[in-house]
Design brief:
This protein has about 300 residues and is an alpha/beta fold. The protein has a domain of about 150 residues: Nucleotidyltransferase, domain 5. Helix content is about 45%, strand content about 15%. The strands form two sheets. Strands 1, 2, 3, 4, 5 and 6 form a six-stranded mixed beta sheet that branches. Helix 7 links the parallel strand 5 and strand 6. Helix 2 crosses helix 3, helix 2 crosses helix 10 and helix 5 packs parallel to helix 10. The N and C termini lie far apart (about 50 Å).
Length: about 300
């Protein structure tokens, strides 16, 4: 069953994660109320919420978890107590994500894109206080928004290779430079949109053996591309499909957050849920043509 698969993978990783913390991190104070639920159980429930189809964690926990998951988690607590425990899972979820993304880096081609994560409606920007000093106004192809941007690099199998979260007004190229550190020396070509291209960035990546291929800005000269690279550049919609799944199916995007901490927990658990999602979007690279033919684009 999926719930067993999720729990076992998370629990196996937690054992290694716990040993690392014991060796490298100072022990926390024993003050405070001890939780009945383990970090693995809290994380599993959060991941199951994103895969459940529920749009609201409160409804999922009260209508599904407390009723149907009691046999799996006999020490389930009240919803209010569970919300208090969510922050304790953040560092573990982040570590698990970084671990799984490193396992996915076994490809030659990658695709990069960003998607907006608004934290409130535009009409409420001036009265919004939860993310004051953190969220910023940004602009995408649809228009202005107030919040953050999630940047993803994926491979042709739809697996996440690297991710980054920035304020809405941060230049995409800064995020790409940061994410590429995770896959340096393992990816040969990366495809993105105009927001990720610049002559200096292309030269920097090329010096590390990585070709950055994107639609050129108006002030850039045309260049020659192989037919194979041109076709791959038209497949960038793959990463847009992944963003769509994360936002529409796995519910990482909503404007009801009451704290930045729970926003981060919701985002990380949604990304972990995508790792466990079956039938990820992917593309077939077995093109049948003369791959060394060139096109001017």
């Amino acid at each position: 069953m999926l719930i067993t698969k999720i729990y076992c993978q998370l629990d196996d990783f937690y054992k290694s994660f716990e040993n690392y913390l014991k060796q490298n991190v100072l022990p926390k104070s024993s003050k405070g109320r001890k939780s009945k639920l383990t970090i693995t159980e809290i994380s599993t429930i959060l991941v199951l919420f994103h895969l459940s189809g529920y749009s609201n964690l409160k409804r999922f926990y009260k209508e599904h978890a407390l009723i149907h998951l009691k046999s799996y988690f006999p020490d389930l607590v009240s919803y209010n107590r569970f919300v208090e425990l969510i922050p304790s899972s953040i560092s573990f979820l982040y570590a698990f994500l970084k671990f799984t993304t490193k396992l996915n880096v076994s490809c030659r081609f990658a695709f990069v894109d960003s998607t907006k994560l608004p934290v409130c409606e535009n009409s409420r920007i001036h009265s919004h206080k939860v993310f004051e000093g953190l969220a910023q106004r940004g602009k995408d192809t649809v228009g202005w928004f107030y919040g953050f941007k999630l940047h993803l690099i994926i491979n042709e199998k739809g697996q996440i290779l690297s991710f980054d979260l920035t304020a809405g007004n941060i230049d995409d190229r800064k995020s790409l430079r940061k994410m590429m550190k995770d896959i340096k020396g393992k990816v040969l070509k990366i495809f993105g949109d105009r927001g990720y291209i610049s002559q200096s960035l292309s030269k920097e990546f090329l010096s590390n053996g990585i070709h950055l291929i994107a639609k050129l800005r108006k002030n850039m000269k045309g260049k020659l591309l192989s037919v194979f690279d041109y076709i791959l550049s038209t497949k960038r919609a793959l990463v847009e499909s992944v963003n769509s799944i994360l936002k529409e199916q796995l519910k990482i995007d909503h404007t009801r957050h009451r704290s930045p901490v729970n926003f981060i927990a919701n985002l990380l658990s949604g990304l972990v849920a995508y790792h466990f999602k079956e039938n990820k979007p992917k593309i077939d690279l077995s093109f049948n043509f003369k791959k060394d033919a060139l096109l001017l684009v």
